Amino acid sequence: MTRFRVGRAFLAGDAAHIHSPVGGQGMNTGIGDAINLAWKLAAVVQSRADASILDSYEPERIAFARRLVATTDRAFQLVTSSGRLAAFVRLHVVPRVLPILFRSKPFRRMMFRTISQTMIEYRASPLSRGAAGGVRAGDRLPWLADASGETTTQDNYAPLASLDWQLHVYGAPTPALQEVARSHGLALHAFAWRDAMAAAGFERDAAYLVRPDGYVGFAAPATAASAPALGDYLKAWRIAPRAAVRA
């Protein structure tokens, strides 16, 4: 597992990473690979992004795949080993320690984020730029149960059903940001500010450009430089939302 791409050939799923079934993560990982690659391929084929966006597939997915293979293989060795130490851990340590750990809310949350793979981030990706508040480009967009805005009265994931690039502002977007969104045919979703947004990591009035897969591609605080920086990002990757292409 040294490459996920060579020229026009891409690897995904079990073709890219075969590992122990411990934890049941193989299917989720393969689906994650397919989603990551599919929206980028579609964008390039439909002339909605520069072909260089495909270069981000391997670095975004291979790092997690390597960690997954290493951890599942170690767990498999522990489960199947016939040594005395492994047997002691299986029969005496695990039954006593796990119930105690699962009483801890932080531990349960950590396990949920690990098994669900919602903890995966692409901060080191060439497609990730900037940060605002506690959210960095490359992070999965934090979820808010109540995020009533100009275009939705549901949670802030409702607009993601479009599977398209979109701009989120938690608070009030500046006129400059509005103009950048308009000129690029980018859907702008502004959500009325509330304290829960800060708790989720958002910065008031900041700009968060969300990718078709729900990850943040660009983030910037509400300053005079944020709108030009967003425009530069969109131009650099030649990003054209589907709505803009149809228009």
What features would you describe in this structure?
This protein is an alpha/beta fold. It folds into two domains: 7-116, 3-Layer(bba) Sandwich (FAD/NAD(P)-binding domain); 129-246, Glutaredoxin. It is 43% helix and 12% strand. It contains eight helices and eight strands. It has helices at residues 26-45, 57-80, 84-101, 105-116, 175-183, 195-200, 226-236, 242-246; strands spanning 5-6, 9-10, 129-132, 135-136, 166-170, 187-191, 207-210, 216-220. The strands form two sheets. It has a six-stranded mixed β-sheet, covered by helices on one side. A two-stranded antiparallel ribbon has the order 1-2. The radius of gyration is 21 Å and the shape is globular. The chain starts with a strand and ends with a helix. The mean pLDDT is 87.
Secondary structure topology:
Blueprint (H helix, E strand, L loop, with lengths): L4 E2 L2 E2 L15 H20 L11 H24 L3 H18 L3 H12 L12 E4 L2 E2 L29 E5 L4 H9 L3 E5 L3 H6 L6 E4 L5 E5 L5 H11 L5 H5 L1
